[in-house]
Design brief:
Low-confidence stretches: none
Order of helices and strands: HHHHH
Helix content: 55-70%
Structural class: mainly alpha
Shape: elongated
Mean pLDDT: 82
């Protein structure tokens, strides 16, 4: 059965290619621009003006307002991402100012040593969750219409 299918496919493929080579281009389809192409494709007696779009200033104002609102939201989202980065570094950073670093370097049998033993996993888990949230927000930021924010 497969041999028959391949044989028929080859026959039809060859016929189709020959037909494409033999066809002459249609001179009536020589358009210079979109407007001319549209006018030539209309039925006789159809007014091309019926297809014009009324671009009122209200719709333009709405688009401008939406673009400004998106720009404000993008700026706010960038600030949130930056703040989350600082919080994650404060909780679980490698620098000497992070909570985890201070707890790890605490002297034995002190308050910080007790906190380190009891809350180490919680702090790490919290930092991991916040970091995950930050990366998710970066995804939303990259999906905005601002091309410069793609690949953040």
């Amino acid at each position: 059965m497969i041999k028959i299918n391949n044989y028929m496919r080859n026959i039809f493929q060859n016929v189709f290619q020959k037909q494409l080579i033999l066809e002459e281009p249609d001179d009536q389809l020589n358009y210079t621009n979109d407007q001319t192409a549209m006018q030539q494709s209309l039925d006789p007696g159809t007014d091309p003006g019926e297809f014009d779009i009324d671009a009122s200033s209200d719709s333009q104002d709405a688009l401008i307002a939406a673009a400004k609102a998106e720009a404000r939201m993008t700026t706010q989202l960038s600030k949130w991402i930056e703040d989350l980065e600082h919080i994650v570094e404060f909780l679980n950073g490698t620098g000497s100012g992070s909570i985890q670093s201070k707890l790890k370097s605490a002297l034995p049998d002190t308050l910080f040593d007790k906190i380190a033993k009891g809350e180490n996993k919680k702090i790490t888990r919290s930092a991991m969750e916040l970091s995950s949230l930050k990366e998710g927000l970066k995804g939303y930021l990259a999906s905005t219409s601002n091309a410069s924010l793609r690949g953040v």
